[in-house]
Amino acid sequence: MRLLYSILLFNFFIAQSQNTLQLNGKQSPEAKIALVSFMEGHWYGTAFGGLTEEIWSPAVGGSMMFVFRHLVEGKVTFYEVGHIRELENSLIFELKHFDTDLHGWEEKDEVQQFKFIKAEGNRVYFDGFTFENVSANEINIYGLIGNEDGTSNEVVFNYKKR
After folding, report:
1. So what's the architecture of 2-161 in CATH?
2. Model's pTM, two decimal places?
3. Residue 147: which residues within 8 A CB-CB, separation 6 or more?
4. What sequence ranges are listed for the domain DUF6265 (predicted)?
5. Which residues, at least 6 apart from 129, have a Cβ–Cβ distance to it below 8 Å?
6. Torsions phi, psi of 3, nearest 5?
7. Could you tell me if 6 and 142 are in contact, meaning their C-beta atoms sit under 8 angstroms apart?
8. Domain extents for the chain?
C-alpha cells in the first residue's frame, strides 16, 4: 500500500496544469519566508478518499515547518514532515513521507524538493505545488500528482482553519 500511495501521490512529472507551474531548470527568484506566512495554523480538509490535516508553524528563523497526516475510516495511512525555508536568497519547499510506523518512504538522505517559482496575487508557486490564500480561514494547496501510466493530474487540497 505504501508503494501505491508513493506512486499516486508523490511521483511528480513534468507537465503543466491550471494551478501549478514547473521551473523547467530556471533559477529561483529572490524571496523571503514572509510570502507564505498565511500558511500558519491548524488546517483540515479531505483528499484521496479520506481526511487530511496539516499544522504549520509560524515563520521564524527563515523557515516554516509542517506536519501532515492522512486518515481513511479513522486510521492514519501516512504522514509527511517538512518545511518551507529560505535557501540561497530564495525559498524551497521540502518534505519527507512516513508510513504509520514512521518508517520513511524516501531513502535516508533523500528529501522531496520543490523550488520557488514566483508569488502572484494570493498565490505562491513552487515547482509542482501552489499555495493559495483564499481567506484568513481557508487555503488551497494544488499539487501535480503523477499516475502509474506516466500522466499527471492536479489535485487540490482545500483546507479550513480549525
Report:
1. Beta Barrel (2.40)
2. 0.86
3. 8, 153
4. 37-142
5. 20, 93, 114, 141, 142, 143, 144
6. -65, -40
7. no
8. 2-161
